[in-house]
Amino acid sequence: MSVVPLRPPQAREAVAPDRLRSALRRHAASVVVVTVMDGDRPAGLTVSSFTAVSLQPPLVSFCIANTASSLDAVESADTFAVSLLGSGQADVATRFATRGVDRFAQTPWEPDAHGHPVIAGALAWLACATETQIPVGDHLLVLGRVLDVRPGRTGRPLVHHEGRFAAPTPLPPFRTGRPVARPAGDSPRS
């Protein structure tokens, strides 16, 4: 597999970072904690850029800022874990997004079967092997192959929207196949 390089910058102006940030605040994103072992100690960070990439092969991705305190640990790790946070875990997400604190001291966690730290009480856990890392703008894009999945507790996911944490409320099921209201005198054709 080859990596396609980014096209060289065009002569036209790009949107200003503050305008892009303002627009992206309106996008609700799931919140996860990505963890690695940094030697013999755990390291991790809150991520809202996590996404599924492929089911066959099983691939996921996330981005980490070039200024993140966990960048060196993530870059040097061959494997990582993802804890999908539930709506009651905003405190965990905040802690893992804060610099200069021991993120694991007040967070219940345990090593998974692969030795990765996973956050207790999460909705699910993924153990992943790093497939590739691609520097992209002011971030590092990490692509991982999912080695194992463990379901956790049931519940609503934690999302980040408009600069704060939230829990989505499920909508009623959408029924397909319902007749469409037609204007009077309009009949379906066979």
Can you describe what's shown?
It comes from Motilibacter deserti. Strand 11 and strand 12 form a beta hairpin. This protein has a single domain, classed as Electron Transport, Fmn-binding Protein, Chain A (Pnp Oxidase, Chain A). It has 190 residues and is mainly beta. Strands 3-2-6-9-10-5-4 form a 7-stranded antiparallel β-sheet. It has a 3-stranded antiparallel β-sheet with strand order 1-11-12, with no helix packed on it. Strands 7-8 form a two-stranded antiparallel ribbon. Helices cover 11% and strands 37% of the residues. The protein is built from 3 helices and 12 strands, in the order H-E-E-E-E-E-H-E-H-E-E-E-E-E-E. The relative contact order is 0.19. The mean pLDDT is 89.
Notable traits:
190 residues, 7-stranded antiparallel beta sheet, 3-stranded antiparallel beta sheet, Pnp Oxidase, Chain A, mainly beta
Distance between the termini: 49 Å
Total helical segments: 3
Strand order of the largest sheet: 3-2-6-9-10-5-4
H/E element order: HEEEEEHEHEEEEEE
The CATH topology:
Pnp Oxidase, Chain A
CATH class: Mainly Beta
Largest sheet: 7 strands, antiparallel
Multimerization state:
single chain
Overall outline? globular
In short:
It contains three helices and twelve strands; from the N terminus they run H-E-E-E-E-E-H-E-H-E-E-E-E-E-E.
